[in-house]
């Protein structure tokens, strides 16, 4: 009952007040908010059950503590009791299953006509983001942002539009992960394309990472998600399709100086040419 009540209305605000119960707050997609509400409601339901059980245990410990050497009445086969503790857990599991299925279906849902399709190409050890004119393998790439050892790839996207991601890898299995989306999905090589959609609802810059151990420089395989208004996104894409570099296109929508590059992470040189590297990723002469 609690789960049903809470997931309907204010799980989000209750959860915020209680610190999110360990779940990262402030997801940046509509899908993330639904998963967050699900987590809060399920945790509150679990706490209610937990407090009830702890209460019963303490009540029994105190009420029926040992008072003498006579054995208390020994009861066997209490049918109502047995039915109760079979039916109640089944009901709890059924309710949890129901809401999990609802939220999962919603998060996995693909729209018939997404507003923007992005092909995510992962490779050892970087990312390429292709802005496509339609979903599907036969669509045309309008513009690309490619990462290198010198530049973190930027994935610039608008708020309020349905973004479809189509993932493919050139070599091994990687995983596309932006922590603030509260979501990650593996990127497979070959013909299997993982596809999912999100609608972003908060502007900002967020680090993205590979979340599947893919080789020596897996830890350096990072990108940055730049969420801007739809109007600025349109100008960015127009600049890119017009042949501008990613940094020039960033400048065209008002980012200046170092803001034209990633601000949440920085490149790590994955070329190895006799140099060694200190902890902060800066090159130091070999042998020092
Ligand atoms: Cu990877």
From TrEMBL:
<dbReference type="Pfam" id="PF00116">
    <property type="entry name" value="COX2"/>
</dbReference>
<feature type="transmembrane region" description="Helical">
    <location>
        <begin position="83"/>
        <end position="101"/>
    </location>
</feature>
<keyword id="KW-0812">Transmembrane</keyword>
<dbReference type="InterPro" id="IPR014222">
    <property type="entry name" value="Cyt_c_oxidase_su2"/>
</dbReference>
<keyword id="KW-0479">Metal-binding</keyword>
<dbReference type="GO" id="GO:0005507">
    <property type="term" value="F:copper ion binding"/>
</dbReference>
<keyword id="KW-0813">Transport</keyword>
<feature type="domain" description="Cytochrome oxidase subunit II copper A binding">
    <location>
        <begin position="113"/>
        <end position="239"/>
    </location>
</feature>
<dbReference type="Pfam" id="PF02790">
    <property type="entry name" value="COX2_TM"/>
</dbReference>
<dbReference type="InterPro" id="IPR036257">
    <property type="entry name" value="Cyt_c_oxidase_su2_TM_sf"/>
</dbReference>
<dbReference type="InterPro" id="IPR002429">
    <property type="entry name" value="CcO_II-like_C"/>
</dbReference>
<dbReference type="InterPro" id="IPR001505">
    <property type="entry name" value="Copper_CuA"/>
</dbReference>
<dbReference type="GO" id="GO:0005886">
    <property type="term" value="C:plasma membrane"/>
</dbReference>
<dbReference type="GO" id="GO:0004129">
    <property type="term" value="F:cytochrome-c oxidase activity"/>
</dbReference>
<keyword id="KW-1278">Translocase</keyword>
<dbReference type="InterPro" id="IPR008972">
    <property type="entry name" value="Cupredoxin"/>
</dbReference>
<dbReference type="InterPro" id="IPR045187">
    <property type="entry name" value="CcO_II"/>
</dbReference>
<comment type="similarity">
    <text>Belongs to the cytochrome c oxidase subunit 2 family.</text>
</comment>
<dbReference type="GO" id="GO:0016491">
    <property type="term" value="F:oxidoreductase activity"/>
</dbReference>
<dbReference type="GO" id="GO:0042773">
    <property type="term" value="P:ATP synthesis coupled electron transport"/>
</dbReference>
<keyword id="KW-0679">Respiratory chain</keyword>
<keyword id="KW-0186">Copper</keyword>
<keyword id="KW-1133">Transmembrane helix</keyword>
<feature type="transmembrane region" description="Helical">
    <location>
        <begin position="39"/>
        <end position="62"/>
    </location>
</feature>
<protein>
    <recommendedName>
        <fullName>Cytochrome c oxidase subunit 2</fullName>
        <ecNumber>7.1.1.9</ecNumber>
    </recommendedName>
</protein>
<feature type="region of interest" description="Disordered">
    <location>
        <begin position="267"/>
        <end position="288"/>
    </location>
</feature>
<dbReference type="InterPro" id="IPR011759">
    <property type="entry name" value="Cyt_c_oxidase_su2_TM_dom"/>
</dbReference>
<comment type="function">
    <text>Subunits I and II form the functional core of the enzyme complex. Electrons originating in cytochrome c are transferred via heme a and Cu(A) to the binuclear center formed by heme a3 and Cu(B).</text>
</comment>
<keyword id="KW-0249">Electron transport</keyword>
<keyword id="KW-0472">Membrane</keyword>
